[in-house]
Design brief:
This protein is mostly helical. The chain has helices spanning 20-52, 63-91, 98-121, 133-160. The longest helix is centred in the N-terminal third of the chain and has 33 residues, at 20-52. It is elongated and about 55 Å long. The chain starts with 19 loop residues before the first helix and ends in a 10-residue tail after the last helix.
Length: 170
C-alpha cells in the first residue's frame, strides 16, 4: 500500500485555506482512490491469513467478511459523495446540500462503528506473538487504513462540510 499523494494538497498551505474545489480533489485522490486500492488488498490478505491459520485461536474470526462489509458501505458512501454531494458543492454553496451533508455525517458515524469493530476484533491491530509476515502486514495495513479513514472523515466533517453549514442550513 502506498501513501496518499501529498502533492494533492501542499503541506505549506493549511488545509482550511485550500479552495473548496481543490479540497474536494484532495479528498478524491488522497482518500477515495486510496480506500478503493487498499481495501481489496486487505481483504485478500485477511483471507490468506484465515486460510493459513484456520486452527489458531488468536485468528480473528470473520475479519475478511467484516472488511468486505466495510468496503461495500464505504463504496456506497463515496459514490454518493462523488455523484451527488461534491458536484453540488462545486456548483455553489446552497441550502440544497444541507440534507446530503446530514446523511454523510450519519454514515461517517457508521464508519466509526466499523472502525471500532475492526479494532476490537484485532486487539487494536496487535498481531499475536509469533505472527507470520502476512498477519503482521495485515494488521499494519489495517492500522494504516483506519488512520486514513479517520483523517478522511475528520477532513470532511470539520473542514469541508462546515463551509456549507450556515446556521440557517444546519
Amino acid at each position: 500500500m502506498t501513501r496518499p499523494n501529498p502533492a494533492a494538497a501542499p503541506e505549506e498551505v493549511p488545509v482550511a485555506d485550500i479552495a473548496t474545489g481543490a479540497l474536494i480533489d484532495h479528498i478524491l485522490v488522497c482518500y477515495h482512490e486510496a480506500h478503493r486500492r487498499d481495501l481489496p488488498e486487505l481483504i485478500l490478505l485477511a483471507e490468506k491469513v484465515a486460510r493459513v491459520h484456520a486452527g489458531n485461536p488468536a485468528l480473528p474470526q470473520g475479519l475478511a467478511e467484516l472488511l468486505r462489509e466495510t468496503a461495500g458501505l464505504l463504496e456506497m458512501h463515496m459514490k454518493k459523495e462523488e455523484l451527488i454531494l461534491f458536484p453540488a458543492m462545486r456548483r455553489a454553496p446552497s441550502a440544497l446540500v444541507a440534507q446530503p451533508i446530514r446523511v454523510m455525517r450519519e454514515e461517517h458515524d457508521d464508519h466509526g462503528e466499523q472502525i471500532r469493530r475492526l479494532e476490537t476484533m484485532t486487539d487494536g491491530f496487535t498481531p499475536p506473538p509469533g505472527a507470520c509476515r502476512s498477519w503482521t502486514a495485515l494488521y499494519r495495513g489495517l492500522g494504516h487504513f483506519v488512520t486514513e479513514l479517520e483523517d478522511h472523515i475528520h477532513l470532511e466533517n470539520n473542514v469541508l462540510f462546515p463551509r456549507f453549514e450556515t446556521p440557517a442550513h444546519a
